[in-house]
Amino acid sequence: MLFYLTLIFACQLAGELLKVSLGLPVPGPVIGMVLLLAGLLVKGRIPDALAQVGDTLLANLSLLFVPAGVGVMLHVALIGEQALAIGAALIGSTLVTIAVTALIMQALAKPGHSDGER
Amino acid sequence: MGGDLREVWVYLATSPLLALTLTLAAYQLGFWIYRMAGFHPLLNPVLIAVIVLVSILLLTDTSYATYFEGAQFVHFMLGPATVALALPLYRQIERVRKSALAIAVSLLAGSLTAMITAVGIAMLLGASRETLISIAPKSVTAPVAMGISEQFGGLPSLTAVLVILTGIIGAALGPLVLNLIGVKDMAARGLAMGTAAHGIGTARAFQVSELAGAFSGLAMGLNALATAILLPLLWTWFF
């Protein structure tokens, strides 16, 4: 298990190194994600111990947002001043994005595609 | 409160242990309330934990910097957790291959819609430049969104808050919108939730159907990638 935790850290580290050395616009952890996915595709399966480590991290994903979320206390004034712009942008954009994505996916995936039904 | 208690607090507040313990406890309290309320989307555990922690910090006159010295150990794990998103992606790889084109087109359309409408609406209503870049990656999972925001002079901590609010809005109102526009296909519903509302939307999608959850998780990972690549291009193009 420790090995796979190290592997996950190493993927992130490699991602950070690639980002800096090649000047990529993509954050290091995302490059690390792509590296791990490539490794899994080469290997052809997910080792049990890696699944254990990775799924534990993902099962508690929302906990990891908390420290950053508490940062709201630094921005109470800013959010208050621009409350209308921020509120309208968040609600409007999120709901429009859901509608656009779902309608296009439904239109494209429907013909001769049985994946959607179960 | 006596002066002794105050001294004990001051002593404890300087060690990372207190902030760490409080963070874990507040989240578990939030999750307990969320479960008790039948997973009501507005009672999101992150939202509850943040409210509890901010109240404690304000009441005890503790700065965010002091709190973060301890809480950074939790925050740090966002990076490795992002790497671990490769696992659900890999598990869905067969399904992705089969409808790759449909997923790619809808994902790209959703990703662009999320960025352009968020920045557009905020700009029309007079948000500052700093707010615009902080809100642009709001549909993407927090670690990636914060990275993008930081890169272009936004406020990563503001972005994190906006990302969390976006997730809560998507989880609460998303299924209503999907019913309203008549999308019944679970793959399409999941893909939309994950694209617009990342992990919080994905958690909601899993409650509705296994298939929706899988597609939502996939969309969350892909949109992180798409936004990380597209937003810098769009941003330098527009500004």
UniProtKB/TrEMBL annotation, chain A:
It is a multi-pass membrane protein. The keyword Transmembrane applies. The chain crosses the membrane at residues 24-44, 56-78, 84-109. Keywords: Cell membrane, Membrane, Transmembrane, Transmembrane helix. It is found in: Cell membrane. It holds the Pfam family LrgA. GO terms for cellular component: plasma membrane. This is CidA/LrgA family protein.
From TrEMBL, chain B:
It is a multi-pass membrane protein. It holds the Pfam family LrgB. The chain crosses the membrane at residues 12-34, 46-67, 73-90, 102-125, 158-181, 214-238. The keyword Thylakoid does not apply. One of its GO terms (cellular component) is membrane. It is found in: Membrane. The keyword Iron does not apply. Keywords: Membrane, Transmembrane, Transmembrane helix. It comes from the Bacteria. This is LrgB family protein.
